[in-house]
Specification:
Helix content of chain C: over 70%
Number of helices of chain C: 7
CATH class of the largest domain in chain C: Mainly Alpha
Distance between the termini of chain A: 50 Å
CATH topology of chain A: Helix Hairpins
CATH topology of the largest domain in chain C: Four Helix Bundle (Hemerythrin (Met), subunit A)
Number of domains of chain C: 2
Oligomer: heterotrimer
CATH class of chain A: Mainly Alpha
CATH architecture of the largest domain in chain C: Up-down Bundle
Strand content of chain A: under 5%
Chains: A mainly alpha (about 100), B mainly alpha (about 625), C mainly alpha (about 180)
Radius of gyration of chain A: 17 Å
Order of helices and strands of chain C: HHHHHHH
Number of domains of chain A: 1
Structural class of chain A: mainly alpha
Distance between the termini of chain C: 67 Å
CATH superfamily of the largest domain in chain C: NADH-ubiquinone/plastoquinone oxidoreductase chain 6, subunit NuoJ
Largest sheet of chain A: none
Number of strands of chain C: 0
Order of helices and strands of chain A: HHH
Strand content of chain C: under 5%
Largest sheet of chain C: none
Largest interface: A-C, 72 and 94 residues
Shape of chain C: extended
CATH architecture of chain A: Orthogonal Bundle
């Protein structure tokens, strides 16, 4: 419970679950949720280092706060994009958004 | 013999001589081409001033002690420097005078000959370019400069031979002249490179003084022979002699210029320019002698059956050039140069006279001219006869003396064969020249109606006299130039006083006899009253055909072209082009397109597919760095 | 419950239990957020997972961040996602099953990343800093945000502002059919 590696592995597992969702989900909203999971994993990582290694515990928290800010901004943009896309192709399925096919 | 620097006066004169024709070319070609009168005036003025300069230089430096050298460094690379400038010594001064004189006279003559031609302005521009290239070639101080102007001479003669480019044969002839001379120039260029690599010095004085000491005998002979390739091309020697007769397609004044003072003379001039260099290699001189002899015989036989007046003179030019080279090859520096000088005078005269007839009657066939009343044009007829006699070597005209000195050199050789060849050539020259003259003087009785029209018979009198005046000037030279031989010899042989070429008393009589027999044969067949006007060759049809077809040289070239160049190289190159070059490019394009097609699968528009690749690469790179 | 019982229950054991519980809901939530095909389940999974992570933050010593986590993720982002679902995805439409190779491939790639990063985690010799302060107060956090990280703080605020404006414009203008319509 009180070891760095435990937390790191948890963060890694969380990250990989997010990655799995990002790769597998076809719903754009599902992908967005997965990205949130991955961001959380990053935050968890920061907190773990903060707790076990860092000289100043405030720094890691500041980083996590920033990550949250970024996550909020990202969610806002992504959701609006999803809405815009949905109005165009009447779907949020990423496999149907293939206008960039070469 | 260290050269001296010219004083300001000489420098000014020389630069004026070298610069004005170029100025005329640019002015006429780019500005005044449309206005004919102004173009002619500019060109003539820029030709007359160099004429005066050249004469004053020649007279001012008669019996000069040391050559004058003026150079600027163009570029310097490693041990080799390329310089531009001029070298004034007796040879270049003499040649400079010849070139400027002939080119001025030809320009005057062209006023009448080219009257009414729509391209007259352009024609004068090209004449100026021609004169400029030749003048700069003559005074060149180094081989590189000489080579550059050598090529410019080739270019301007191409432009002038093909001047009536709307005529297919003219443009073909220009092309032929250019390509064949280029073939020889390749050898010349290689020779220059060999010299540059092994001697590091391209200046003519250095070459003449040091080459024999610094180059090994093999290298010396090789470079001399390579340079001689250029001479063969330029002076139309065997085996590259057929371009010159075809070059008759150009306007006749151009032929006069081409045959007497510029272009073909450049080849002989080059050999005499670096004559000490050639003398250092007896093998090379032997080759020069042999090539000259073969050329003289071949082209004389061709001249014996030609019916085109300009063709006859063209063959005779080739044979006389061969004769000069024989003289040079036999070691007679003065003999070769002297014959070059006199030949320039009488050959220019011959062509200019022929030009008057051609202009008047509108034909090149002298049988037709004669029937149309060529005898009526008194002044050209007399000039033509004088020049023809000089060409045959009749005493006391210029040709007699110069031929005599060449014969003297040939007689000095240990092998009598060369002298026999020389005498044979002289006999043939006399025969074909007087054949033409007799035909012109005595029109065939069985003539059909006199041919009129087609020519410019109704021309203004001024045009006729503008054309005749240069003839008279040249005729004066032809008559009196021979007597200046002694003085000229002393002038040219400044550095080896007292070395006179051996004179053989019997030789004079032998050559007179030979010439007389040639003339006599011509008289028997063409000149005497009631003569059939058919040469003895008409009884030997096979031989006649052989001569008329130029010994099948052209057919040989055709065969070579067809089988070797087109049949082998072209096919090879075509295959190379289709298979290797085209195929390579096609393959490359197809490869690119295919790769693009393959890669376009990556651009599937599937976002997650890209994500797959990205993440996979990150994971693999991470693994790689961890495991290595 | 009797006080005697409490004496037998050791605080470490409680902490362990709580930790295991939090880990459990974190990963259960994460799996729910990823695996089911119904998007609403996913959102609930995300919320659950966030709760677990917030709990872990408490374990890691920062109650403030745990609160912020819940506030931002559950209070804002999840709600926004639910709104987006309501605005876009017709829930009654069935989604066709995932293409099998893609499924396997995504598992494989995720596994590869997991292995790769695990090796990093295991191999790296983590070292503690020599001097460590233990000032975990929010006060210090606020000070730092307004002094040393002032610029970053402003930047993140600006980013948020721009993101919000951009989101409004994107959703309003691009989506309203004024952009080019694509089939």
């Amino acid at each position: 419970m009180n070891s760095l590696n435990t937390y790191l592995f948890m963060a890694l597992l969380l990250f990989c679950i997010g990655l799995l969702g990002l790769l597998k989900r076809r719903s754009l909203i599902g992908m967005l949720i997965s990205v949130e999971l991955m961001l959380n994993a990053a935050g968890l990582n920061f907190m773990a280092f903060n707790r076990f290694l860092a000289p100043d515990p405030a720094v890691g928290q500041v980083m996590v706060l920033f990550i949250m800010g970024i996550a909020a901004a990202e969610a806002a943009i992504a959701l609006s994009l999803i809405l815009a896309l949905f109005r165009k192709i009447r779907s949020v399925n990423v496999e149907q958004a293939r206008q960039l096919k070469g | 013999m260290t050269p001296a620097a010219p004083n300001d006066y000489v420098l000014g004169l020389a630069l004026l001589t070298m610069g004005l024709p170029l100025l005329a070319f640019f002015l006429v070609f780019f500005l005044t081409r449309r206005s004919v009168g102004l173009s002619c005036f500019i060109s003539l003025a820029c030709s007359a001033v160099p004429l005066l300069c050249a004469w004053s230089l020649l007279l001012g430096h008669w019996r000069m002690p040391v050559p004058l050298l003026w150079e600027v460094v163009w570029m310097s690379s490693g041990g080799a420097t390329a310089t531009f400038g001029f070298l004034l010594d007796p040879l270049s001064l003499l040649m400079l005078t010849i070139v400027t004189s002939i080119s001025f006279l030809v320009q005057v003559y062209s006023l009448g000959y080219m009257a009414g031609d729509p391209g007259k302005g352009k024609y004068y521009a090209f004449l100026s370019l021609f004169a400029w290239s030749m003048i700069s070639l003559v005074v060149a101080s180094g081989l590189l400069q000489l080579y550059i102007f050598w090529e410019l001479v080739g270019l301007s003669s191409y432009l002038l031979i093909g001047f009536w480019h709307h005529k297919f044969s003219a443009s073909e002839a220009g092309k032929k002249a250019f390509v064949m001379t280029r073939l020889g120039d390749l050898g010349f260029f290689l020779g220059i490179i060999v010299i540059l690599l092994h001697l590091g010095d391209l200046s003519i004085l250095g070459l003449n003084q040091n080459a024999a000491l610094k180059l090994g005998p093999g290298l010396l002979t090789a470079s001399a022979l390579l340079i001689f390739c250029g001479v063969v091309g330029k002076s139309a020697q065997f085996p590259l002699l057929t371009w010159l007769p075809d070059a008759m397609e150009g306007p006749t004044p151009v032929s006069a210029l081409l045959h007497s003072a510029t272009m073909v003379a450049a080849g002989v001039y080059l050999v005499s320019r670096i004559f000490p260099f050639y003398q250092a290699s007896p093998e090379a001189l032997a080759v020069v002698l042999a090539i000259g002899a073969v050329t003289m015989l071949l082209s004389s036989t061709m001249a014996m059956v030609a019916r085109d007046i300009k063709q006859v003179w063209a063959y005779s030019t080739v044979s006389q050039l061969g004769f000069m080279l024989m003289g040079l090859g036999a070691g007679g520096y003065f003999a070769g140069v002297f014959h070059l000088t006199t030949h320039a005078a009488f050959k220019a005269l011959l062509f200019l006279c022929s030009g008057v007839f051609i202009h008047h009657f509108g034909t090149n066939d002298f049988f037709v001219m004669s029937r149309s009343g060529a005898r009526g044009l008194k002044a050209p007829m007399i000039c033509l006869s004088v020049a023809g006699a000089a060409l045959s070597g009749v005493w006391p005209l210029a040709g007699f003396f110069s031929k005599e000195s060449v014969m003297g050199v040939l007689a000095g050789l240990s092998n009598p064969l060369w002298l026999v060849v020389g005498l044979l050539g002289a006999a043939m020259t006399a025969y074909y020249t007087f054949r033409l003259l007799f035909v012109m003087w005595r029109p065939c009785e069985s003539a059909e109606d006199p041919l009129h029209g087609g020519g410019h018979g109704e021309h203004a009198a001024w045009a006729y006299w503008v054309m005749v005046l240069p003839l008279i000037a040249l005729a004066v030279f032809t008559v009196f130039l021979g007597w200046g031989g002694r003085g000229l010899e002393a002038f040219l042989r400044w550095h080896q006083e007292g070395v006179a070429e051996a004179h053989h008393g019997w030789l004079v009589w032998a050559s007179v006899l030979v010439v007389a027999s040639g003339v006599g044969l011509a008289w028997l067949e063409f000149g005497r009253a009631g003569a059939a006007q058919a040469g003895f060759l008409s009884h030997l049809p096979a031989l006649e055909r052989l001569f008329a077809r130029r010994w099948y040289l052209d057919d040989l070239y055709r065969l070579l072209l067809d089988y070797v160049v087109y049949g082998f190289f072209s096919r090879l190159f075509t295959i190379n082009d289709r298979r290797v070059v085209d195929g390579g490019i096609d393959g490359f394009c197809r490869g690119t397109a295919g790769a693009g097609w393959l890669l376009s699968f990556l651009q599937s528009g599937l976002l997650q597919f890209n994500l797959f690749s990205m993440v996979l690469v990150i994971a693999l790179v991470g693994l790689y760095f961890l495991l290595v | 419950m009797t006080p005697v019982m409490w004496e037998y229950v050791r605080p470490e054991a409680v902490a362990w239990a709580a930790f295991i519980f939090l880990v459990g809901i974190t990963f259960a939530g994460a799996l729910i957020a990823v695996l089911p095909r119904n998007i609403i389940y996913n959102v609930f999974g995300l919320a659950t997972c966030i709760l677990g992570v917030a709990g872990l933050f408490i374990f890691l010593g920062s109650e403030f961040l745990a609160m912020m986590e819940i506030l931002i993720y559950i209070g804002a982002i999840s709600v926004a996602i639910v709104f987006a679902i309501m605005l876009s995805q017709p829930l009654h439409l069935t989604i066709p099953p995932t293409w099998r190779p893609k499924l396997y491939l995504s598992f494989a790639v995720s596994a590869a990343v997991f292995v790769s990063f695990s090796i990093i985690v295991v191999r790296t010799p983590w070292e503690e800093a020599l001097l460590r302060s233990d000032d975990w107060t929010v006060l210090r956090l606020g000070r730092l945000l307004l002094t040393r990280y002032e610029l970053l703080f402003e930047l993140i605020s600006l980013t948020l502002l721009v993101a919000i404006i951009g989101a409004i414009i994107t959703a309003a203008a691009l989506g309203s059919g004024r952009g080019k319509e694509v089939k």
